[in-house]
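Friendly challenge for the regulars: who can give me the structure tokens for this chain first? No prize, just bragging rights.
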Amino acid sequence: MYRCVALLALESPQQEPAVLARTAKIELSGLPSGEPGSVFLNGCDVSEKIRTSEVSESASRVAADPAVREALVVKQRELLAHGDWVAEGRDIGTVVMPEAELKVFLTADPQARAHRRAVELGADVGTVLAEQAIRDQRDITRVHSPLHPAPGAVTFDTTNLGVNEVVARIARLAHDCKRPDRPRAE
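First reply, four minutes later:
Bragging rights claimed.
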């Protein structure tokens, strides 16, 4: 959702990002197979457009705006209130859904993260690493919803894990959460 607002802000720089966040129609279409679906912004599929490095950088900037965060938290909570979701984001467990049954905070060596992103984008690892460091610092130090693990989150390092291994570990955690003999936090 932040990437969608960032894309709108890049396309309409004269508009306030908070206004764009409040008025944007953002829809997610999941696939029954569990594979990632598409992201629609005001009726247009923007799944690829929102993954560019320019949008990533802009998303980190617009996410620092408290009015943007407020507008998108409302949209995220509305979406997550219906159905059984796996949601990812830098403040899902701390702000959007602090009551989530399972919260996972993934970490990885910065170089490994940059390499993964560079492969995904077909970009230079050094450039991605530098941009990532700027975004991480901005996200960690922002006043509203700074990046940190949520209370009660399970934290694990994915540096040496492939995506299938990460998914398998999270699936095991989710399965364990659903066990009736597991004590529930009150």
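DSSP finds eight helices and five strands in the chain. The chain has two domains: 1-85, 87-186. Your move, everyone else.
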